[in-house]
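Here is one chain, start to finish.
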Amino acid sequence: MLLKIHVEGDTEKRFVDRVLISYLTSLGFIVKVQTNQTDATHFGGLSTYAQFRKNTIRLRGHAPCLITTMIDLYQLPSDFPGKDEAESRKNAEEKVLFLEQKLKEDLDELSPDFIPYIQLHEFEALLFSSVDTINRNLQNATPSTLSKLKTVLHKFGEPEKIDTNKGPSVHLKEIYGTQYQKIYHGIPIAENIGLEVIREKCPHFDSWLKKLEEYACSHR
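Its structure:
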């Protein structure tokens, strides 16, 4: 069973390749990951929904497959379906579910083999599943930096609730400065945390994987 994952950038691609791939293949999927192409020569980012939509449709190809996405809620482009309406939702959880539904409706031609996923609020939220692991993996870590991480997590309660007003990546850069580089540190930290813990701490992320599990079970 072929699973194509349309991801926002290189970090998400590496996350799938190094953290998710074993789990996904255990479900029976053959996994292909495609980073969003933003122009003729550049990959990564989500500058316009129109381009993202075109690229997602193009993934379908000729062989039967399930298509899913992994993009950030943070800084969705202005032409994303339902973006203005989503602002009236009372919290981020309702907002992201609304936007995923709008994405599914807008890509109806992929139905029923399309499962949209938008990360709350960005990739670094997953890392806050274990602030101790973040701190152990960065060179300038101290008890003080760990304390600051715990303060951020305590303020919001859950990793996925660290919001877009000041996203998790901004907190990491403020605490660690240039010692935190997403592309170099994000994936090793996620690997050390482990998928089981990330799923436990990030219910929206976990719900995405459960949908993939259900699809895999129903197509055996």
